[in-house]
Amino acid sequence: SSQTNEPLQYRVSPSDMEVAVKTLHARDHSAMIDVKKFYKRQTDTLKKMASLNHANLISAITAYTKEDEHCFVFPWAHGGNLCKFWQEYKGPRGSDLTKWALSQIIGLTTGLEMLHKDNVRHGDVKPQNILHFCTGDRTESLGTLVLADVGLAKFHVDHTRDREQITSTRHGTVDYEPPEPLNQQISRYYDNWSLGCVILEFVIWLLYRSDGLDSFHKDLKGDNKHKRFWAPVLGTKKDLHPKVRLWISKVKEDSHSDSVVWQLADLAKTSLLVDIDRRTEENQNMIKKLKTIETHFQGRNSDEWEFPADFVTSPSFETDAMRPGFVESSKFKESRKDDSELTYFVEPDDDHQPPTAVGLPILPTIASTQQFNLLKEWIRICDDSHDCISAPENLRDAVNGMPTRVLFVGKDKNSTIRLVDSSDLPQQHYVALSHRWGDLKEHEKLCTLEEKIDQDGNIEQDGNVNQFRLEVPFTFLPKNFQDAVTVTRAIGVQCLWIDSLCIIQNSALDWEAESVRMEDVYSEAYCFLAATSASFSAVGFLNEREPRPCVTVTTPGGPLYLSKAIDNFQEDVSEGLLNTRGWPQSQFLADAHFPRSGLLYYKDERIRLVQHLYEIYSALNLTRIKDRPIAILGIETRLARVFETNAKLGVIGKFLLRMLLWHAAKK
Length: 667
Prior knowledge:
By secondary structure, this protein is α+β, with helices and mostly antiparallel strands. It contains 22 helices and 22 strands.
């Protein structure tokens, strides 16, 4: 008989390259013929693999013979194999890891298909034969998974195979072999079953890590010697192992149907871990299906908002959930959707310290004391944690620190609402409202107007500015404005800015003077109210919402509430009706509470982000087209401040040439 040795590691000078040398040698003279035949066949196979030049297929450096030894030289895999990676990986969870895993699965599948087209069958696809090539310290990237040991030759494994002899055997490792009869001719579809086993294990690891994978193997093995993925059913019939079906169901239950892990588990069950006839049918569509999953995954909104301990998803929840690092150590489910399955938070008056988010177990009644207490607690946390707003006594002078006019709303519903000049008020905070009129006609909109007199001294247009200086009756206000007044009073602020009431709408001079200060108005606002849920002004935004279920978890730090996640920033805000309008979009970015880090988060790609903002803005709607340059001035001014440069006509001075490359969006 004959055998292979464990690969030896060598360091080659002067390049200081590390290589692995795998040696074939015969145990006795009679086995030498088998060794020579295998060496010739393996050499031909490795030449074919090298010619394919595929990143996920092993490429031999050379092959040589020395006396009775027949050797192959390969690059050394610093990461060991896939099994070792699963056992030792301690890095972060999340979309980057999932994206890498999916790309490697696609690469391995593509490489295997290329081998099959070249009439090469691997015969022993398993995690131990998938090498992990990475930098020595693994700091740059997660590396590349490479399919090795083509032809059943032993390479880079931690455990000896059950059958160590080098023969022309048609069988690979027992655990990953398909359920085909032993006397049936083996084809490329043998490898597809084994690949399905590896993909399912990868999915289980992504969701439950090493502990989950160990539990799966334990369930699969039971009292048997091997942990095959199939089991005998009746007579000679074989089918997918009941435990495998159970774990696939568990993966699907614990992940969103739109997630990568769910899709991969389903693919393994329906296309790979099936009888050979079905595998034959599915083979030609395998790469296409994987690419579809990848395309869908890459199509996710890529904005990653770093907000401490807010939205998490986990198949298990620990009682010490309040401890630091809990979010990082939980077993998260990766989903293609931005919204998570679960939200956890503590009450506004709880003693827990951030990073736990503040919220309420049951959605509070709209405009109730409970809801406004929650709002005030969020604002308090912002005041205590951020430096984006100044104290009233440190505000700039009246001309720059506050808008020219504001609505003085007072402390409660008994207060008279009136339009006042900010110069007549002591320095104080104010709230700014962003809203959408909807499809109202001009005469249906509540606006501040000045009296217009023609050349003959006749009143051409009635005005209301003087009346509003005395009182703006609450009942006169559309629902959006009423709700804004209610919220402003509830959070302890007495001044409210609404563009249509604080800018004289039929005065070209006033409009020109005030519109160019829009960035200052929103930047200096203490709080910014966006009526995102209101399709038009008469709807309002303090409306009843659908209740959501909630459970309470007892922790050493106090009660922790778990509720169904209902927040979807992308759909509800970024893509909401309000932000299809030009003015609100410029208001949102101009707002001081839009973090500086939000603009700089993309680092070297920040120029593309600016170009993207302009491109999006070019497709937004404005009541008056001529307002577009004025409206975008808020964005422009803010960007100039962040990049510490000048800006004009939509061009950031520091990046003049690059800023000429964007184009208008296609509506």
